[in-house]
């Protein structure tokens, strides 16, 4: 949910309750809640979907919690899957046909000591809703809504924090962060995604939990970082990452001036997370080993890794210099750079350099109709073989690459006759040498 999609927070509890009553909850979920109630149990919807509904967004993924134990849920509903029964979660298959819905139903629970900063040593099933909400990470994620009784539970001041634009931990922030190190990253991510700021005591507690954060899998960290970088103003999360020490655990340590410039640039760039991540790595781009270590630690896909490596390569520096050349000298240099960079990454490279529209137009004009790969040449290897100029083997590839260089220098050479003539010249020159 983007900041532009949100309404202002409810002015008071009555307005909040009125907004929730207007929300349409999927019929399959309502059926589950009604079945629980008839059996004497208490069921509610909880978490982020409630928060978003309070801010005017209908829909979303509804989490359901109740005071029924997993075994009681299995006995109550005819179709269930024990998806996470050790953590109190049972999937209830509710409804039929297009209305069929897999409802994840989690028992109110408390958790034991987090020995590794990631997983509780034990899960204790509870009967009290507020005790369950007390284990949530942030106050704005600790709402519960009972649509049958029209009761909104806000035990930790989440509404007040929504109105104030604050990201605040539930209860003692040091305790919350010590339980699960990822909560530190979630806090800064929510600050960026919501357009909020961290409550002072919550921000202050992050530094003390860095050793716990270090135990979190990089895959989980990556998910939070990507969501942060997709926000309208990633600086709202990146600045507290820097001030609390999280930055140096996730990204390359930078001098304050370079770091601040990178953060400011992220706010200006299009909301493409990999592009913004490349900008955060830009100040250390000449240390290729460090760049690769940071990228690989975040477990990117192969395509993402290639994009990040291309955008932090010296080719982007060369493009920045090439666009400053006089008009008559610019075009062949730009074509050569883009051919090596791969035109697939050109738009992101131009965005990273923050080129203006006029300069981008000049780059596009230099590439108009130009061949940038051997596949775009007006001649194929088979043509060179049939003309008796080349034979199958590695040297054929070398010759095609030389022909591409000639076309990049002068696109008018990209015709079959011209390329055959050029190939013969190259062959003759090779024989002479």
TrEMBL record:
UniProt GO MF annotations: metal ion binding; nucleotide binding; nucleotidyltransferase activity; tRNA binding
Cross-referenced InterPro entries: Bact_CCA-adding_enz_type3_sf (IPR050264), CCA-adding_enz_C (IPR032810), NT_sf (IPR043519), PolA_pol_head_dom (IPR002646), PolyA_RNA-bd (IPR032828)
Residue ranges annotated for the tRNA nucleotidyltransferase/poly(A) polymerase RNA and SrmB- binding domain, each copy included: 195-251
Alphabetized CDD domains for the sequence: NT_ClassII-CCAase
Pfam families on file: PolyA_pol, PolyA_pol_RNAbd, tRNA_NucTran2_2
Keyword Transferase among UniProt keywords: yes
Protein name: tRNA nucleotidyltransferase
Organism expressing this protein natively: Enhygromyxa salina
């Amino acid at each position: 949910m983007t900041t532009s999609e949100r309404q202002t927070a409810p002015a008071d509890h009555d307005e909040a309750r009125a907004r929730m009553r207007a929300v349409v909850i999927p019929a399959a979920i309502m059926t589950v809640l009604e079945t629980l109630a008839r059996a004497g149990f208490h069921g509610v919807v909880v978490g982020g979907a409630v928060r978003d509904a309070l801010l005017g967004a209908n829909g979303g993924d509804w989490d359901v919690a109740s005071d029924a134990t997993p075994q009681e849920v299995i006995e109550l509903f005819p179709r269930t899957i024990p998806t996470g029964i050790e953590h109190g979660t049972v999937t209830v298959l509710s409804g039929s046909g297009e209305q069929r819905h897999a409802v994840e139903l989690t028992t109110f629970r408390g958790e034991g000591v987090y020995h590794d900063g990631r997983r509780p040593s034990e899960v204790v099933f509870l009967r009290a809703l507020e005790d369950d909400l007390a284990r949530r990470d942030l106050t704005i994620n600790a709402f519960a809504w009972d649509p049958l009784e029209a009761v909104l539970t806000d035990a930790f001041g989440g509404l007040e924090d929504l109105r104030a634009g604050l990201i605040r931990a539930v209860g003692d922030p040091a305790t919350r962060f010590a339980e699960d190190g990822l909560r530190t990253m979630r806090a800064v991510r929510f600050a960026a995604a919501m357009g909020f700021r961290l409550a002072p005591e919550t921000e202050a507690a992050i530094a003390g939990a860095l050793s716990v954060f270090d135990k979190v899998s990089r895959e989980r960290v990556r998910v939070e970082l990507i969501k942060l970088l997709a926000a309208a103003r990633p600086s709202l999360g990146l600045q507290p990452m820097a001030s609390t020490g999280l930055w140096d655990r996730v990204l390359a340590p930078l001098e304050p001036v370079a770091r601040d410039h990178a953060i400011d640039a992220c706010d200006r760039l299009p909301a493409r997370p990999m592009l913004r991540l490349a900008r955060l790595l830009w100040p250390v781009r000449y240390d290729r080993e460090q760049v690769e270590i940071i990228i690989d630690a975040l477990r990117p896909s192969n395509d993402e890794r290639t994009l990040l490596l291309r955008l932090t390569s010296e080719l982007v520096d060369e493009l920045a210099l090439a666009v400053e050349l006089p008009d008559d000298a610019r075009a062949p240099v730009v074509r050569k750079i883009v051919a090596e960079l791969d035109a697939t990454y050109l738009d992101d490279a131009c965005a990273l350099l923050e080129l203006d529209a006029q300069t981008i137009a000049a780059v596009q004009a230099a590439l108009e109709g130009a061949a940038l790969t051997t596949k775009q040449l007006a001649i194929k290897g088979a043509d060179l073989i049939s003309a008796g100029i080349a034979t199958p083997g590695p040297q054929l590839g070398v010759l095609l690459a030389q022909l591409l260089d000639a076309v990049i220098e002068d696109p008018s050479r990209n015709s079959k006759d011209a390329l055959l003539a050029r190939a013969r010249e190259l062959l003759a020159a090779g024989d002479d040498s």
